[in-house]
Amino acid sequence: MGLAQFPVELISRIVQCLRGDRSSLRSVLLVSKTWAAQAIPILWETPQPTDLAAIHDRGRQQFYARYVRELRVNGPEGKYHDDFRTLGFPRLRSVVIDAQDEEAWIGQYIQPALEDISCYASLPAGNEDVLQLLEKRCPRLASVVIGRALRGLNSGSLCGFIDRCKSLRYLGVIDGSTQHIDERVLFSLASRDDLEGLEAEAFLAHDMFVSLFQQIDRPFKDIQQLQVQIESRTVPLLVPAVSNLRLLSLSLTDCDMNPWPHLTPLTNLQDLTILYYGVAEISANDFQILKGWDLHRLIVGSNFGNVFAPTLTDDEFIPVIETLPNLREIELGFESSLTVRSLTSLGQSCPWLRDCVIKGTYDLSPWMDIDPSPPLFPRLEQLTVDTIEEIRPTPLASSNPIPDKAKVFAEVMQSHAPNLEDLCLHHRRDKFSAAVVAVINKQNRPDESSSSYTSDDESDDE
């Protein structure tokens, strides 16, 4: 019996096993119509907008559109909104809509199956009222992110939408406008028992929270994710009410009060971000608060200004890191006296670490004396520091030219981090560090000749 004669049930199981392997699924299309019928729904679950737009026959385009479950239309792809205007997406569950300050047809994506929408289009075409369409058409809608100042959006329309959309679990308003989340909107959100996530980029004044806590007994009862821009004095008022948080992102508009001691109730946190506006100082005792938490992601830094941790040394840092074995991402954007000992501890204590960004200049030569079996960083994909110091002379060449030393050290780094894709430097200060980056990037991306830098500083030696 040939492949074409397999029972449909068996074909379906085989095709399901190929989910995620687009190349193999495309090959399945060539076997027979029966095989193709099983592969097409999977292939078109998460298509590229360009693939759908490339189909010029309207009937065929609609045939494939009916299988789409997730669609991301980003940047220049916004030109396809008009092309898709007459299509139906009956199975669409998640959509990201972007349009670069141009009118965009959005209504075709707002279908009954929709559960998750992120809208970065500010000008809906044809006077479409996006919130009204979502409210009327989408009984399963759970997550809404408004990424730009959507035309027609105001605190009144947003408040009405929150009150009437009973399935809503997550709301993000990240266009930065202060007029959309006023006291009335905040009250509507805080009083919902089923709200699990709130992301508000706009500044939320302390007085709004004072009034809220005076009028609502248990605000944000079920909140799991909270991302807000607030005053530091709001932290001790807010934290006791949200002690079950899994994710907290605080953008603090001042440094009048130290937020860290007030975070102690948040022992369920897995994702913590604290960003300061202006100059701030973190103590070693502040960092100790994190000991024993089940953190997967930790980001501390500034939006504007500098953050300092003058008393945080290896001796205070390492005992905390040793209690965070599930850490996957760490970004410490503050000045401190941490050394390679702390970086080594991250490798030894956090086997799941994928992304490490730590401000400072580091002498990583001690890694040359550490046995790479097993590697220090088995899953690390990106390491970012200010710069790295030149290693001591090696016995491989009498002159020890920089390219030779860079190659040797790049090999050491890759033995300790076999999945390393990027070594990024905030500052380009010498030929050695530049050469190490170039070697690593050349091996990972042979078609690219440029190195990875996050600043425009030039080498002092060039």
* Overall pLDDT confidence: 86
Q: Report how far apart the termini are.
A: 69 Å
- Low-pLDDT runs of 5+ residues are 449-462
Instruction: Identify the overall geometry.
Output: globular
Let me know the largest β-sheet: 14 strands, parallel
| Percent range of helical residues | 25-40%
How much strand content do the residues show? 15-25%
Please list the strands of the largest sheet in the order they lie side by side: 1-2-3-4-5-6-7-8-9-11-13-14-16-18
* Distinct helical segment count: 16
Q: How many strand elements? A: 18
Radius of gyration: 26 Å
Name the structural class: alpha/beta
How would you describe what is shown here?
- The structure is a single chain.
- The protein has 16 helices and 18 strands.
- Among the domains are: 1-43; 360-462, no CATH class.
- The protein starts with 7 loop residues before the first helix and ends in an 18-residue tail after the last helix.
- With 462 residues, the chain is α/β, with parallel strands linked by helices.
- InterPro entries: LRR_dom_sf.
- This is F-box domain-containing protein.
- Residues 443-462 are annotated as: Disordered.
- It comes from Aspergillus sydowii CBS 593.65.
